[in-house]
């Protein structure tokens, strides 16, 4: 959270450098004219979309984290955690593990798909030079790093939003329960008056409709 709020340029650097390096190596490979780059172009487009999404997430979430409304909400949340003695670290840890598992599944799926594509391309181009094969492997590695980094930033932004909303939602629930309990305790002695008032209101509505 501090990284997003105070040093977003670090995340921009981690997102953009692998993607730009992949683009440069693809241009180098395309200038040779010895191989087809359609598969690598598709990977670059997918990584570019994820990079744009990650950059947008960092920008918008960082802007929200620096706002006064956010600081007010988090200060209230911290008071709630301190007052009600919640095991917030346990709840937060469960949420964090869910997003970490989802990110691992995404990365493993992407790596398996890319490995199959590389194997197919390697089988179709067995007469290429060693330098061309090296450039291809570099592109594949940069593509994997770019996807892993961009998707990690996206999942981090999603986790932070879910983490904050979950905490504020629990605080709101407990606050509502506390308000209802106080109201019931204050009005408990006047329950007979309340029942009489409701009866009179019901009879009045019934008479009005008749």
Describe this entry's structure for a reader.
The chain has 210 residues and is an all-alpha fold. The protein has one domain. It is 90% helix and 0% strand. Helix 2 runs antiparallel to helix 3 and helix 5 packs antiparallel against helix 6. The longest helix is centred in the last third of the chain and has 58 residues. It is elongated and about 80 Å long.
What is shown here, in short?
The chain is mainly alpha-helical and 210 residues long. The protein is 90% helix and 0% strand.
Helix vs. strand class: mainly alpha
Q: Order of helices and strands, N to C?
A: HHHHHHH
**Integer tally of domains:** 1
Overall form: elongated
* Uncertain runs: 189-195, 203-210
| Sheet with the most strands, sense and barrel status | none
Transmembrane segments: 9-30, 42-62, 99-121, 141-160
Keywords: Membrane, Transmembrane, Transmembrane helix
Layout of strands and helices, then pairs:
Elements: H1 2-6, H2 8-32, H3 38-65, H4 68-84, H5 88-124, H6 130-187, H7 191-209
Transmembrane segments: 9-30, 42-62, 99-121, 141-160
Keywords: Membrane, Transmembrane, Transmembrane helix
């Amino acid at each position: 959270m501090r990284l997003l709020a105070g040093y977003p340029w670090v995340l921009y650097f981690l997102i953009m450098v692998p993607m730009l390096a992949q683009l440069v190596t693809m241009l180098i490979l395309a200038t040779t004219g010895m191989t087809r780059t359609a598969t690598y172009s598709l990977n670059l487009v997918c990584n570019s979309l994820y990079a744009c999404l990650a950059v947008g997430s960092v920008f918008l979430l960082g802007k929200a984290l620096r706002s006064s409304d956010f600081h007010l909400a988090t200060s209230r949340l911290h008071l709630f955690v301190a007052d009600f003695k919640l095991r917030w670290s346990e709840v937060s840890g469960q949420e964090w593990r869910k997003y970490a598992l989802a990110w691992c599944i995404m990365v493993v799926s992407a790596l398996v798909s890319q490995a199959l594509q590389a194997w197919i391309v390697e089988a179709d181009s067995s007469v290429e030079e060693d330098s061309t094969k090296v450039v291809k492997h570099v592109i594949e590695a940069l593509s994997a790093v770019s996807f892993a980094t961009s998707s990690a930033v996206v999942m981090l932004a999603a986790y932070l939003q879910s983490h904050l909303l979950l905490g504020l939602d629990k605080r709101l629930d407990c606050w509502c329960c506390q308000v209802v309990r106080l109201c019931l305790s204050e009005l408990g002695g006047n329950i007979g008056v309340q029942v009489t008032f409701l009866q009179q209101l019901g009879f009045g509505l019934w008479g009005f409709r008749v």
